[in-house]
């Protein structure tokens, strides 16, 4: 008698467990208690579409309490597109409290674009300070000036989709600093009037095409760096010296080559002299045979030659620098 009752009770418990697991009854009750009507079959359809009902209903309750007038279809379509529904609703509530015009479609587009729409709304209310790294620039007098700036920006919600980010702002500010310092006559002008950099950078309209609106640019630090002009002149002088040394070495090598060439010519001429002198004994012998030269004449020539050699030997003994003939 009790066995069928136990089976029915167990079956009822199982059915209720499955029902409460698959159908978020408590979430449906919470929505009704908050004044938001969500049909029970709508919640079941969310389960079938693999949508977590709590991620749709809870933001819908917040939106209803804030008076945004959003529909469940808008939130569910944004969830299915891969967006963060809770963050979008929080951004819309924050924008409404701050009197910032922001529609659900634009907020959803910003969220799907990968930007934090809630942070953008918060930045619109509370501007953010971006600090640039130390930017080095060289004035016309060759002195390096290092400048660090702080840029106060406010998010421009209308340009969040497709607008450039913080990196572009930092790059443009750095470009403006380099331009301003580079156009200064001396580095003292920059040190005396650092606000000149701020005015020049602001006049360029650096926030064009970005997701931010620049409110102010303040120079945080200005330091004097190296004397780049003197270093460049020193390096140029060193390069000129090396070029001059190379040309001098080239001329020396050419002179050495010419000297060797002249020595070779001297040796060649000496060889010709020796060759010519070798013809003298032959000519004398021919003259003796033909009777054109007597024996006495020949002996006088020999005596003259011996006397010349003796004088040469004496000259070398007194002056060793003279070469030997």
UniProtKB/TrEMBL annotation:
Keyword Transmembrane helix attached: yes
Transmembrane segments: 27-46
Keyword field contains Membrane: yes
UniProt topology in membrane: Single-pass membrane protein
Keyword entries, A-Z: Cell membrane, Coiled coil, Membrane, Transmembrane, Transmembrane helix
Coiled coil: 229-279
InterPro entries to which the protein is assigned, alphabetical: FloA
Localization, UniProt: Cell membrane; Membrane raft
Function: Found in functional membrane microdomains (FMM) that may be equivalent to eukaryotic membrane rafts FMMs are highly dynamic and increase in number as cells age. Flotillins are thought to be important factors in membrane fluidity.
Family: Belongs to the flotillin-like FloA family.
Subunit organization: Homooligomerizes.
NCBIfam families according to UniProt: PRK13665.1 (NF010186)
Protein name: Flotillin-like protein FloA
Lineage: Bacteria, Bacillati, Bacillota, Bacilli, Bacillales
Gene from which this protein is expressed: floA
